[in-house]
Amino acid sequence: MHLLLRCMRGCCRRSRMPRSLRRPLSYIKLIFKSLYFNSLTNSEVVFDSMLEPVFWMVEIVTRWFGMVFVFLVVALTSSVIFIAYYCLLPLVLQTYSPGWIMWHICYGHWIIVMIAFHYYKATSTPPGYPPKMKTDVPFVSVCKKCIIPKPARSHHCGICKTCILKMDHHCPWLNNCVGHYNHRYFFSFCLFLTLGCMYCSISGRNLFIDAYNAIDHFRHMEAEKQGVPVTGIGLLIGIAPSEGVAGKEVSQPPYTNKDRMFHKSIIYMWVLTSTVSVALGALTLWHALLITRGETSIERHINHKETKRLAKRGKVYRNPFSYGKLNNWKVFFGVEKRSHWLTRIFLPSGHTPYGDGLTWDIYPLKKDMMPV
């Protein structure tokens, strides 16, 4: 491209072209120059430009299907809760001791309240936006899309079409950005939903195995002649008592639609909760690591690039927003005294985070300011 422009410039110098040809030629040169905006253009800028249509399509799909994702979260969670009440709770009341019954009822209802509270707060709480008008708040750059000053840790969300304070990412499952004011709600929702799914997966493992074996057994029995005596089938589907059955032949009990739905519901619940506990558990651990380091998902990439860039110069990059591992957790959860570890983490709490998301001088000196 540079050679082409140089040749065109040389031709213009050698032969004085008429004015009628010079103007179209200048316009063609301007078009060629518009393909690259300055000498700092590199492969990353070209790659981002090529992927811009893909980003545009993802933004449109995420924006339009946001409510669908929210509906899926509510529907799937409600289905698991319904199965727990309709199928599991009667079995717990019939088979467990009073101590275990109290444990399952208390833990189950506590985890349901924590999941519902934090999901509602994460979806309904605005993440925080920079001021639109001119203020005295220090800023680090100007957003090229919003044309407003961007404070530290703020980034533009293409789906929300605005800048977000301490933006972590746009979550389609919340239909909302995760930012300064709802980051704690998002992480707590992921944490307690993971604990709830692990609880259902571990406690329902034996029921899942029994239900799967029962369905598989009756699938084979349907092809055989009805009325053939079988051994121990009542125990297999859980409708006959265990006393006096072993070693005796009993006639095949009827496998009703209610039994079939019961077993399929157990299988559905176990597969769903096991899958979610693994996938969401990995995401929760990743965000826990980011919180420990005092950075967001976006800042993780920025800090990684800065670390590599300064390493080439023999320097060490230090995150300016990290106050130490323990203090990062205190700032994130808003812990100010020892009782807050219980009331603000393991109980529903609507307290606001530290600061306004515009400045980050929470600890002037990076030492433990809260001995809790």
TrEMBL record:
Keywords annotated in UniProt: Acyltransferase, Membrane, Transferase, Transmembrane, Transmembrane helix
GO cellular component: membrane
UniProt xrefs under InterPro entries: Palmitoyltrfase_DHHC, PFA4/ZDH16/20/ERF2-like
Localisation: Membrane
GO molecular function: protein-cysteine S-palmitoyltransferase activity
Transmembrane segments annotated in the record for this chain: 61-88, 100-120, 185-202, 267-289
Domain Palmitoyltransferase DHHC: 141-301
Domain commentary: The DHHC domain is required for palmitoyltransferase activity.
Name listed for the protein in its UniProt record: Palmitoyltransferase
Organism of provenance: Phoxinus phoxinus
